[in-house]
Amino acid sequence: MLNMWRISWRNITQNKKRFFISLLGIILGIAFVTSMLIADKTTNDVFDYYEEMYVANADYWVLSDEHTYSEDVVSSVLTSPIVTETMLALDKQAFFELEGDQSLNQRSVRITGVNDQSSSLLKLPVIEGSLDNEGLVIPKAVANLLNKKVGDTIRFTDLGEAKVSAIVEYTQLLASPSNWERAESTSFRIMAPLELLQEWTGMEDKLSYVRFQTTEEGEKLFQSLQEEFRNSNVYVQPVVADDRQSNDIGGLYTFFYLIAGLSMFISGFIVFNMIYTSVMERKKEFAIMKSFGYLQSSVSRLILIEVLLLGLIGTAVGVPMGIWLGDMFMQTLLSVFEFDMVYTLNWKIPALIAVVVGILFPVVSSLFPIYNAGKTSVLLTLKMANQTQSSRSLYIVRAVLGVGLLAFVFINHPISYLAILVSIILLFPLLLLGVSRIFKPILKLIFGYSGSLATQTLTKQLNRNANTAAILAVGIAVILLLSAVIESAPEGYENEIRNTYGGDLRVSSESPWSNQDIEKLLSYDAVVNVDSLTEATPITWVNTNGEKRQFSIFAVDEEGPTLFESSNKDNLYYELAKEPSVILGERAFDEWGGNIGEYIYINTPSGKQQLEVLDVVKTSNYSGYVAFMDENHLNNKFGWANNFDVLLTLKDGYTGEQLRNELWLDFSTHLSKVETVEDEIKSTTSALIGMNELILIMLVLIIGLASIGTANTLLMNTLERTTEIGTMRALGFTKQQVKKMIIGEGLLIGLSGVIGGIISGVVLLYTTSQSELLGGVISFQLPLGNIILALIAGVSLSLLASWISSTTASKINIISSLKEG
Amino acid sequence: MIKVRNLKKEFIQGQERTQVLKGFDLNIEEGEFVAVMGPSGSGKSTLLQLLGGLDVPTEGDIVINQSNLSNMTEKERTIFRRKYIGFIFQNYQLLPTLSVEENIAFPLHADGSLTKKKNQIIIELLDSVGLKGLGRKRANLLSGGQQQRVAIARALVNNPSVLLADEPTGNLDRGKAEEILGLISRFNRENNQTIIMVTHDIFAAGFADRIILFKDGVIDQVISRKGDDYAKYVANFMA
Ligand SMILES: Nc1ncnc2c1ncn2[C@@H]1O[C@H](COP(=O)(O)OP(=O)(O)O)[C@@H](O)[C@H]1O
Ligand SMILES: [Mg+2]
């Protein structure tokens, strides 16, 4: 057996360059797969981790639809034997007192007073200092920006001052901007001892919420509390780990698997190519082995061992490389999202999966050649009939099938994408022939006779060359589609936000807006209209799988601002007004999993309710993870009475930015947030714009991997044609001319790959822009920059790939090559 | 016109050294038809390869038309070969993806010297090797004898001064071989081309002016058609 492995090793390493290129293809393929698996798991972990930290050990919490409530309202909770731990909190908006010349809105900070900083209902990842319940707890971003260390004093305008007792890592509860520019539109968040905050603000005995942990009988307590609070201004909710309102990362996972699948596909092709050619080369050898009594299975086993060897080495190198690549990728990805998040690379299970995949996929991709090798017919092969004549009828079948599948362009279904890609692959021999015909004069001009020879010899292994170019094309097409989506999405999102934001400026307060306030707002030159906005949050509900989720419900009615898009909006308002019912944003609807007309379970401030889902609508609010309800029903039946937000509509020519300072100055006592529609657009689209860079890197990497395929194919072509090339040399072809010929072939493969890739990318983009799912967001707009990049990268990497084989070709020893013939 | 002085060729494979050509002199006149004979492995093909500049001698000089091959760079040798040497191989070595015409035109293409006038030459050559009308056929679809005719036409297309043929009839039956040899000697006579042909076949050698007998890397015997031993030698062989 050992002997068998040694023979296989000798076989695969017989041609060093071929071995190296194929191995490189496998290694990179496995590395990409590993890194994407790691990215998937790690991203998942990161968001799980922050969700869990947000929930900590808390089971329920009591909140209010007013900003605060007094402590005695929740005495039943604080004294209940079922409750094992409680944590009391008060939120208060304030301002840092700073030396610098930062504006009021930049200095705004939300202080959360808690009665026990080290409570298990609150997990704070301390970096420095300790949770002593005497000083402030600030996140690292704030410490860096204010240049404060543990023990330093921070002062708050009109409130007081306190020492920093602990600095913590990023956590949702204390999410803060990390630079002054972002501080323009978002508040800082820090934590202080509850009593201190109550004393500063004069809000003794006031609370914003109480979190608590229960024994197993929690559900009973929950129900009785729902009953108890039914007609009060407080309500109880389970604490739910659901971050979907602030993060829309669902699409990211699709992206990971798309890249992984693509790399696997390309690598598989490289393996197939190598093994298939090597089997064809050794047919005679196999025939002799069989004539000496080797069984079909032992011939197959020999090839299988060769493939396993390749897979093993590829995995041994590729997986560690993939872990490193995954780390790099995660760093880039998280910096794109502008979170100050820390992550721990989750590599163990992904690496394990990658090892299995890495060993199996070379075997799977070479099943056909393995079978083919075993089946070698002794008589036919020893007679050596020239069997590589590709039959014309096969190409015709391929082309007809390809044209047929192209009809899927007009069918609106995800399967169309696959059909279009398969169709492109099938049509590639035609495309390759067309491209080489078109470029023949140009190649002739540049490379002389070598150029026109290249166009001719390309047809000898038309299938293989076409497949190689097709792989490049598929890679380019998929990435171009991705980048077009990502490039044109911001514009789509911007339109959607402008249409459904409800105004130009959303201003949040800690107390309800008085009539005087509203009049004051209306007296601003810029303001045309003031709409009050009711948002019930957090509201928990149950999806059709029985899992708890959490979102906001907005009040809507005919007179109010436009918060969603729908073609029969008036009818929806009318229907909503009839019976208590909801309409859901798209993401909420998907997460819920039910159908229109069915009922959704919601924990309302007046207890658990079943509400009919009337429709699903497009909305930019919380990226669609939201519900809408009639204003009246939300106030009465649902039990959410107050509103703290107003939407301002501005005169043409004014922007929200100009009003920000004025608002903070005029309403500094109770303002908690000023958000302009531009802020919302920026925060939604900045991640997408950052993703574009990642896509560019992926584009180049995928083209690079595909070019290894090109190098591989060209090397096979060269090695198969040793005798021919030797003959050409004997007849007076110089080394330079031989090189030019191979480079010409590589150039044609690269060019047709890029051209085919761009064509199919455009077709896919067209299909996408016509689809129901993305049609609104994606416009049919060509990503010109990326097309040019694909062209340059595709052509230059193909040139590099062909250069590798061309040196092999030019070094062919004339004499020995002639002996072989 | 061909002068070979003290020609030595040694192959080194790992530790092993094989002395194939062991130092000999040879003069061949312009327009002469020389046959090279000798046992397998005696270095006949090696000699042809050195004469054609496919390889370089370990020692000694090869001068063709006053040019010393040993002093040339690889590229100069290739261009020299393109201009002055025609090769014919035992296994034809046609380029399978090209048509018959394209195969014949190959040396002209390599040179970049294919003109309308030379296109005419190709048609005439096709005619004279008896393949009229087959120009557009794929080369690898022809029979062995036909393929060798294409190879001859190809070797002659740039009107080389030297034609090197390594067992050109080795794969053909007697009838076909006779036709091919007839062609070669006809061109030798009509174009005054110098021909050096390696062969195992005394019948083939009979077409030559001189027979050089090779043995252990040196010339063992030279038999001239003009000399007496020629007839004797041939008769001996036939017996
Ligand atoms: N490239 C090479 N490397 C090593 N030995 C070679 C090489 N080419 C030829 N030989 C050896 O040189 C000897 C002469 O070969 P060759 O000229 O082909 O003989 P012939 O044509 O007379 O049969 C043989 O023994 C052969 O093994
Ligand atoms: Mg020989």
What does this 3D model show about the protein?
By secondary structure, chain A is α+β, with helices and mostly antiparallel strands. Chain A has 4 domains: 1-36 and 247-388, no CATH class; 59-238, no CATH class; 393-501 and 686-821, no CATH class; 502-683, no CATH class. Chain A is built from 28 helices and 22 strands. Chain A has a 6-stranded mixed beta sheet with strand order 9-4-3-11-1-12. A 6-stranded mixed β-barrel of chain A has the order 15-16-20-17-19-18. The two termini of chain A are 34 Å apart. Helices cover 37% and strands 26% of the residues of chain B. Chain B contains 8 helices and 11 strands. Chain B has a 6-stranded mixed beta sheet, sandwiched between helices. In chain B, strands 1, 2, 3, 5 and 6 form a 5-stranded antiparallel beta sheet that branches. In chain B, helix 3 packs across helix 4 (116-128). Chain B starts with a strand and ends with a helix. The model of chain B has no long low-confidence stretch (mean pLDDT 89). Adenosine-5'-diphosphate (ADP) binds at residues 11, 13, 18, 20, 38, 40-46 of chain B.
